[in-house]
Amino acid sequence: MRMTVLASGSKGNSTVISSSSTRILVDAGLSCREILKRMVLAKEDPATLDAILITHEHIDHVSGLSVLARRLRIPVFFTEPTHRAWIRMLTPRTTMTYSKWLEHIQMEKEARAAAAAENSGYDLAAEAASIAHVAAEAEALDSNLSLTRSIYAGADPDADDGELCDGTAGPAEALKKVDRTLLPAVEYFHSGTDFSIGDIAISPFTIPHDAADPCGFVFGAEGIRMALATDLGYMPPNVKSALKRVDVLLLESNHDLEMLRDGPYPWSVKQRVLSRVGHLSNDATAEFLEKDYDGGATYIVLGHLSEANNAPELARIAAEQALSSRPMLLGNRVLLASQASPLESIAL
Ligand SMILES: [Zn+2]
Ligand SMILES: [Zn+2]
Predict the structure, then answer these.
(1) Is residue 176 part of a domain?
(2) Backbone phi and psi for residue 148, each to the nearest 5 degrees, phi listed first
(3) Distance 225 CA to ligand 2 centre (A)
(4) Full residue range of the structural domain in which residue 148 is found
(5) Which end of the chain has the smaller Cβ count within 10 Å, N or C?
């Protein structure tokens, strides 16, 4: 069994989990192009992927999802609330069409004219002002429309290089034609209920995080178990027990508490990260390793490290210190997943 972390961090998360016959991409938080590039770098063949599995709908876990799934024509596994939240996120706010708006303006104009006619003298100046007002509104609407359009285009992580990953359509074309919520196939799973994709058994467990229905996973095949648990506000009992008897553990070590407190984030964001639905600090991860971890993993991969509020060495030292307090765990190897490049595949 193999785990290849393509990217981990608040700018994008994606990991390949493979057995000898099945390959699953967990999260697609980079652009389609970047995921394909990193898979090739990590010697993983994108054409052999069987499915994409999503932990939760935050953008750092789904930004390349729809383009990649359509490109590879593979099913996407979500929980139903996550799928719905993802669709809502991608669906732009409904705005008035131009013809509806013209109708609306015409009615307003008639109402104003009727009101004016009721007054003793028909006010030419008021009518002129009203026409000017309509013209100004039309102009504002037009610039709003193009603004909306450019924001929407800019928000498409795959529109950045002028083609839709497979080179068939540019972003303008794509915006007109492609419904971004369209996927080749969608499969639902339920947190707490085991299922499988090919010969990989999957146990999804609920994690405390501010998303619709966020999950961590334990993957099992060929007698090996690999777990993935990032984006956790704290370590509740169900997560602690899900992470027992695993051979590879990808675990969040998001921030150093002092760096976060003194760092650049606005107060509200700091509060969110620190909250029980935010992210695990190096200290919280170390506490888990010291007190609750059963010590069975050959590899512990620290992931979702914050670039602004953590330093890889701080995360590593905290975890290694925690493990060294239990001499029997010195055989556990600590690896650091990175945002910038794939981690060498871990094969057991
Ligand atoms: Zn998240
Ligand atoms: Zn995340």
Answers:
(1) no
(2) -55, -45
(3) 22
(4) 98-155
(5) C
CA of 207 to the centre of ligand 2 (A): 12
| Same domain, yes or no: 68 and 193 | yes
Q: Mean pLDDT of all residues in the chain?
A: 86
134 and 208 fall within a common domain: no
Q: Do 205 and 230 share a structural domain?
A: yes
Residues around the ion ligand 1 (C-beta < 5 A): 58, 231
Per-residue pLDDT tens over the stretch 17-55: 999 999 999 999 999 999 999 999 999 999 999 999 999
Q: Which amino acid is located at 99 in the chain?
A: S
Instruction: Output the CA 131–ligand 1 centroid distance in Å.
Output: 49
* 245-248, long-range: CB < 8 A, 24+ apart: 245/294, 245/296, 246/218, 246/296, 246/297, 247/1, 247/296, 247/297, 247/298, 247/299, 247/348, 248/3, 248/224, 248/297, 248/298, 248/299, 248/301, 248/346, 248/348
Q: What percent of the chain has pLDDT over 70?
A: 82
Q: Which of 155, 173, 191 is the last residue of a domain?
A: 155
Neighbours of ion ligand 2 (CB under 5 A): 60, 231
